[in-house]
Amino acid sequence: MELLDHGLMAVGRKYLWHHRRSTPDELRQRAVRLYRDSDLKPVIKRLAEQLNVRPEALRNWIGQAEADAGERSDRPTTDMLEESRRLLKENAGVAPGERNPEGRERVFRLGARPDPATVLTFINEQSGRFAVALLLRVLQIGESTYYA
């Protein structure tokens, strides 16, 4: 196996792209377009061999294109992934447990445990926006306390 220019690997007489990031965007777009524009859907493995890419990479590209087009809901769109990456970078410097309270409501003071009636009122008010089970988990309150 020999690594060539632009991330190509020579394996015997075949050339494979070494890494996802080294695959040119034009090739990805062309591969997805070839698959999607075909009347009879080609076998992904055969199309991948013809394009000298790994079948799993082609399958992922096709799935991502379908998600971006709104045809799939089982995976995030490219925009969602980019937003997630941006938020991860933005929050990388924030220590666990820290938060930025700007623009947020303060319901309970840190370090103080409010009386159960206040907590139950809060849960009842927020139950239209959030699932009760989620609120109980976040507030660290047992279900038996709420449903008693």
From TrEMBL:
Q: Where is this region: Disordered?
A: 64-105
GO aspect biological process, one term: DNA transposition
Q: Which GO terms describe its molecular function?
A: DNA binding; transposase activity
InterPro entries of this UniProt entry?
Homeodomain-like_sf, Transposase_8, WH-like_DNA-bd_sf
Tell me which domain of life the UniProt entry assigns to the organism this sequence originates from: Bacteria
A Pfam family reported for this protein in Swiss-Prot or TrEMBL: HTH_Tnp_1
> What are the Basic and acidic residues biased-composition ranges?
69-89
The name on file for this protein is Transposase
